[in-house]
Specification:
Shape: globular
Strand content: 15-25%
Largest sheet: 7 strands, mixed, barrel
Number of helices: 33
Oligomer: single chain
């Protein structure tokens, strides 16, 4: 610890004495106006102070960040994080890469045990449970059995890692959603570590391999989602390199009105911030309204930072943070340390402290203006007030597809399909709600809306209402604590009476694990080409994500999920039309069964107890008998099974050290894409279609279609994932008029085939590939396979108008060059069609954000010459690109160090 600025001090608390780096000392010495800095920037500054070593973190780095202003300019921050968190979809490929790195070290005569997380890492298995069974008490047990059956090979790998890797813990299946487990248990707010004989206290911070890692920002913990590639580098001791962000101050004042929920609030905030534009920025919430929000409400808002486009949405530590730590059963010594430490270093939020902070920009919201809302039918930022949902849905039916509508003609609007089932029959039509899912960390962490859903269900049952027979209803609590308090409140039986039975503890519907629709429903949807709907309490509703049969997807509070299950359709105005009728034929309106805040608070007071959290998290790493019974492999090196269709050794380290950067010449365009192409479009996580290249590969390996599982579950096999890249059923390659799905055209022949097949033909010819896209390329989840698959298809560069933060850095991490059109230019203004042959020049002497020359040669012999910005934002990213990727850089450095020793 170099401590160039002499800020190391001692802190005495009732539970002990700690060393710490005092940020406020910088202000006393006239080196920085710390009290004017946003709280999030202060935490980053503390990390630099504590980790100064003169090499990765220098005195100059500290001075630069200490001078942060609302217009920060180009300040490079080598941020060292306290820990890493992973979920199993993105965690499995990270473990696969670590296992392959161990092999690479061993093959070069090194000690494979050198490959371990240097920074503590926790992996929570929460993305693998699928809603196969629903609507019965048996559903949970069936889904868990299927989960283990489908994912055995993946789980054996993770159990091997748990035993073979140091500093690595696994939370087994059936425990909860990664972000809720993080919020309720793993997060400490203030960490301690033994360093040079001292017990050092410092802020909790992390990166996670899921974009919704930001949920923990509600607890005052600095953290956000990164790709698995970057997370692995952080685990291996590398700083996370970033530019110091602008910080948008978002003032909240007033109080939520009766009937409005935290879900309605976050959908409102998402709409405001997306319109304002906060990509690459921090958002920090302040103002008197913050004090009126529970910690769970704050976590709900922080969770959806990826949806509003920010790196994170941060709530500093205050009294409510301390209350939540006590509520969730954290030790009193920790609560004392959090309070004493954050107050000592200027990280504790008070109205007086807030007034001094300078932000890059400010926005504000009067909480009293928030009203019940949904978001949809295709994007989370498209909020629609509950009273306007009917009209909005009907308008979207006929809106053009390019305006996020469904493009139906007038003759198609009245289409209905009769379904006969046992002793009942009913009609499905456009707008029928076929999925109603209480799911996803966004809301299942929040007792207010979960107990609210239970109370609404109770009133609905008492009024004689029932879920419509065509609705697939499910309840996937974010942790077992939720089930405990629903049971303790006596509300779970009412949810079950409406067929909202617990189906599993995991992300389920929100990530595409909604499972298949009942056969008769799916058949009717296909027969009528119906635009049916899903209503879910999640954070993602992108096209093709929730279920392949469901085109319209709406985000809503758990209470509204139940309401739409009762109504069974989207074309209803809850403010004017009844949900249904009681046994006497009397209409029942939503207002009749909507619980008051007083009722919800009363239920919370009776049921929420720290002992619930202590009980459920006491043996969190042990797992159930199924996990304990898995025969875990042992040894320093993982035993790869060449016949496995889940886990295969990736090819990323085959030519280590042989990568050479040069100009890209003679490149062909594989796809031309529009705006807001998501990582779901690039690397889908849902079902694997039988006729797709990935499906055909699995069949060739003897896997039956019913055993395909999902793309997400097979992320440990690059053969599946590269075939799934750009294979989304809703992606639109603009080189192909009127064609939807993962297809491309082989040039110059002009033959159309699956993207994978076309890419492989180009690879055989030695032709480098290019993707051209519009604005916000790579929005959505932090999918490392969106970059890995891009690399394996032979794509050398992506030329876009703008990139979402995580995907851009993931591309760099895989050695793929992100290129950005200059302001005011794009594919249309330059007259590019994708049929040209491209040269990208000036790559030998790259520097951060260098302008490179692009030459596009048309078929008629004419040329278009223009400049583009190479989005390698820091000198370190330039090195990553030169070495072929971030993991290659880490491994090469490690091998050099071993040789030097």
């Amino acid at each position: 610890m170099k401590d160039s600025f002499q800020t190391l001090k001692t802190l005495n608390t009732p539970s002990g004495t700690y060393a710490y780096f005092d940020l406020t000392e910088l202000e006393r010495k006239g080196l920085a106006e710390v009290s004017r800095l946003p709280f999030s920037i202060r935490i980053m500054l503390e990390s630099l102070l504590r980790n100064e070593d003169g090499y990765q973190v220098t005195k100059e780095d500290i001075e630069a960040l200490a001078r942060w202003t609302p217009e920060p300019g180009e300040i490079n921050v080598p941020l060292k994080l306290a820990r890493v968190i992973l979920q199993d979809f993105t965690g499995v490929p990270a473990v696969v890469d670590l296992a392959a790195m161990r092999d690479a070290v061993a093959e070069r005569g090194g000690d494979p045990r050198r490959i371990n997380p240097v920074v503590p890492a926790d992996l929570v298995i929460d993305h693998s449970v699928q809603v196969d069974a629903f609507g019965t008490a048996y559903a949970f047990f069936y889904n868990v059995e299927k989960e283990y059956e489908r994912n055995r090979e993946r789980y054996l790998l993770l159990k091997w890692a748990q035993g073979a890797l140091e500093n690595f813990r696994v939370v087994p299946p059936g425990t909860g959603i990664v972000h809720q487990v993080n919020l309720e248990y793993l997060a400490k707010v203030v960490m301690t570590q033994q360093v040079e004989g001292l017990t050092l206290a410092f802020p909790d911070s992390l990166v996670g391999t899921d974009s919704h890692t930001t949920m923990v920002n509600g607890l005052g913990v600095l953290g956000w989602g990164v790709g698995g590639i970057e997370a692995e580098a952080v685990m291996l001791g590398q700083p996370y390199y970033m530019l110091a962000p602008k910080v948008v101050g978002f003032k909240l004042y007033g109080e939520l009105p009766e009937g409005a929920t935290a879900t309605d609030l976050v959908l409102t905030i998402t709409e405001i911030l997306r319109k304002h534009g906060v990509v690459g920025k921090f958002v920090e919430f302040y103002g008197p309204g913050v004090a009126r929000l529970s910690l769970a409400d704050r976590a709900t808002i922080a969770n959806m930072a990826p949806e509003y486009g920010a790196t994170m949405g941060f709530f500093p530590v205050d009294e409510e943070t301390l209350n939540y730590l006590r509520l969730t059963g954290r030790p009193e010594e920790l609560v004392e340390l959090v309070e004493a430490y954050t107050k000592a270093v200027g990280l504790f939020r008070t109205p007086e402290a807030e007034e001094k902070v300078r932000y890059s920009e400010t926005l504000e919201l009067d909480l009293s203006t928030v009203e019940p809302s949904l978001a949809g039918p295709k994007r989370p930022q498209d909020r629609v007030a509950l009273r306007e949902v009917k009209g909005s849905f009907l308008a979207h039916l006929t809106k053009p597809v390019k305006e996020r509508g469904f493009g139906l003609g007038p003759d198609q609007l009245g289409k209905k399909v009769l379904v006969k089932r046992h002793d009942e029959e009913f009609e499905l039509a456009h707008g029928s709600v076929v999925i109603a899912a209480i799911t996803s960390c966004t809301n299942t962490s929040n007792p207010t809306v979960m107990l609210g859903a239970g109370l609404l269900a109770k009133k609905a049952v008492e009024a004689g209402l029932d879920t419509k027979p065509w609705v697939k209803s499910s309840l996937a609590p974010g942790s077992k604590v939720v089930t405990d308090y629903l049971e303790a409140s006596g509300l779970l039986p009412f949810l079950e009476a409406l067929r909202f039975h617990v189906v599993g503890y995991g992300c389920t519907t929100c990530i595409g694990n909604s499972g298949p629709l009942p056969e008769d429903i799916a058949k009717a949807v296909e027969e009528g080409n119906l635009v049916v709907a899903a209503v879910l309490s999640g954070n993602r509703n992108f096209e093709g994500r929730i279920n392949p049969h469901v085109k319209a997807n709406y985000l809503a509070s758990p209470m509204l999920v139940v309401a739409y299950a009762l109504a069974g359709r989207m074309d209803i105005d809850f403010t004017q039309e009844p949900l249904g009728h009681d046994p006497n034929g009397k209409p029942v309106y939503l207002k009749d069964i909507w619980p008051s805040m007083e009722e919800i608070r009363e239920a919370m007071a009776k049921t929420l107890d720290p002992e619930l959290f202590k009980k459920e998290y006491a043996k969190v790493f042990e797992g159930d008998e199924r996990w304990q019974g898995l025969p875990a492999p042992t040894g320093e090196l993982f035993g790869w099974d060449p016949e496995s269709t889940y886990i295969q050794k990736p090819p990323f380290f085959q030519n280590l050290g042989q990568h050479r950067v040069g100009d890209i010449r003679g490149a062909r365009v594989l796809l031309v894409l529009g705006d807001s192409v998501t990582t779901d479009h690039i690397s889908p996580a849902g079902a694997i279609p039988v006729k797709s290249p990935a499906g055909q590969y699995l069949i060739s390996k003897g896997v039956k279609p019913e055993d395909f599982n999902s793309y997400g579950s097979r992320r440990g096999n690059h053969q599946v994932m590269m075939r799934g890249t750009f294979a989304n059923i809703r992606i639109k390659n603009l080189m192909l008029d009127g064609v939807e799905g993962g297809y491309a055209k082989k040039l110059p022949e002009g033959e159309v085939d699956f993207v994978y097949h076309v890419a492989m033909r180009y690879q055989e010819e030695g032709t480098p590939l290019l993707v051209i896209a519009g604005k916000e390329y790579g929005t959505g989840s932090s999918r490392d396979w969106a970059a890995k698959g891009t690399f394996l298809l032979g794509i050398k560069a992506v030329l876009a108008e703008s990139f979402e933060r995580i995907h851009r850095s993931n591309l760099v991490g895989m050695g793929v060059l992100p290129l950005e059109f200059l302001p005011g230019e794009n594919r249309e203004t330059l007259g590019l069609t994708g049929y040209e042959v491209y040269d990208i020049l000036g790559l030998q002497d790259l520097t951060p954000r260098k302008k490179v020359e692009v030459v596009a040669r048309r078929e008629d012999g004419t040329e278009v010459r223009f400049q583009a910005t190479a989005r390698l934002d820091t000198p370190v990213e330039v090195d990553y690109y030169r070495n072929g990727g971030i993991l290659q850089t880490v491994l090469l450095n490690m091998l050099k160090e071993a040789k030097a020793q």
